[in-house]
């Protein structure tokens, strides 16, 4: 699974992604960032990190000009939509 943010053409800030399942932490930081020009533009999740049909929370933030910026997110439930062979 891949989560991406911002504009891939011209990344402006280096964001960090944290996620957790269920009703609360522990939060886990992305283990495999996708980068452009050494700036994080996304996160790739291995299949073993994905728990289907549970509340999946994502928190994406950065510090820019001494202020913390957060990308608003919603709670999702992941479901494998792919075809298995």
TrEMBL record:
Superkingdom of the organism of origin: Eukaryota
The Cytokine receptor-like factor 2-like D1 domain, residue ranges: 1-45
Family annotation (InterPro entries): CRLF2-like_D1, FN3_sf, Ig-like_fold
Pfam families: CRLF2_D1
Protein name per its UniProtKB record: Cytokine receptor-like factor 2-like D1 domain-containing protein
Organism name: Sphenodon punctatus
């Amino acid at each position: 699974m891949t989560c991406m943010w911002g504009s891939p053409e011209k990344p402006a800030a280096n964001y960090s992604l944290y996620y957790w399942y269920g009703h609360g932490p522990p939060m886990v930081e992305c283990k495999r960032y996708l980068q452009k020009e050494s700036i994080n533009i996304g996160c790739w999740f291995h299949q073993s990190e994905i728990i289907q049909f549970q509340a999946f929370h994502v928190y994406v933030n950065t510090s820019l000009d001494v202020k913390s910026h957060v990308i608003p997110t919603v709670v999702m439930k992941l479901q494998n939509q792919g075809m298995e062979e």
